[in-house]
Design a protein that fits this description.
The chain is mainly alpha-helical. It has one domain. Helices cover 64% and strands 3% of the residues. The protein is built from 6 helices and 2 strands, in the order H-H-E-E-H-H-H-H. It has a two-stranded antiparallel sheet. Helix 1 runs antiparallel to helix 2, helix 2 packs antiparallel against helix 3 and helix 3 runs antiparallel to helix 4. It is elongated and about 60 Å long.
C-alpha cells in the first residue's frame, strides 16, 4: 500500500462506505429532523427486516478490511516481521496499516454480532467509540511512517 496504486482499492472501498454513511445520515435527518439519531451502519432500504442482505455494509467492511489487512501484514512485509531480534523497522508503515485495518475489521464484526445475534449487547455509542478508535489509531503511534523516519534520521545526523 506504499504506492498510489496500493491506495486505490482500499481508498475506494472506504470512500464508498463513507459516502453511503453521509447520504444515509442526510436522508434520515431530512426525513425526521426531530427524531434523528446517527447510526453506526445503515441497512439498505430495500432489504427486509430479517434478511441477511440487511447487513451488506458490514459484510463489505469485514471482507474488504480483512483482505487488505492480509495484504499489508503478510505480502507487503514479505513475512519478515522480526529482523535481528527486533521488529522490522523497514515495514512499520505496513504494521500501522494492518493494525488500523484490524480495528475496522473488529468494529464491523462486533457491530454484526451485536445486531444480528444479540450475544454482544453493545450500544450504538459503544460501537461508535470502537469505530473512532480504529479510525484514530495512527494518532496514537506518532512518527512511525517511513517518510517520517527518513526525515528524522537525516535530521539527527
Amino acid at each position: 500500500m506504499g504506492s498510489f496504486e496500493g491506495h486505490i482499492l482500499p481508498g475506494t472501498l472506504f470512500g464508498m462506505v463513507g459516502l453511503w454513511h453521509l447520504l444515509n445520515c442526510i436522508f434520515n435527518y431530512v426525513k425526521d429532523s426531530k427524531g434523528f439519531c446517527c447510526r453506526v451502519w445503515h441497512p439498505p432500504a430495500w432489504c427486509a427486516q430479517g434478511s441477511r442482505l440487511r447487513y451488506v455494509e458490514l459484510y463489505i467492511i469485514i471482507v474488504g478490511s480483512f483482505i487488505d489487512m492480509c495484504v499489508e501484514f503478510f505480502y507487503s512485509t514479505h513475512r519478515r516481521f522480526v529482523v535481528d531480534g527486533a521488529l522490522n523497522t523497514a515495514h512499520l508503515n505496513d504494521f500501522e496499516h494492518s493494525a488500523m485495518l484490524l480495528m475496522f475489521f473488529l468494529f464491523a464484526v462486533s457491530a454484526l454480532v451485536s445486531e444480528a445475534t444479540g450475544y454482544v449487547l453493545a450500544s450504538s455509542l459503544a460501537i461508535f467509540l470502537f469505530f473512532g478508535a480504529g479510525g484514530d489509531f495512527p494518532s496514537f503511534v506518532p512518527f512511525n511512517q517511513s517518510h517520517y523516519l527518513e526525515s528524522f534520521s537525516a535530521w539527527w545526523q
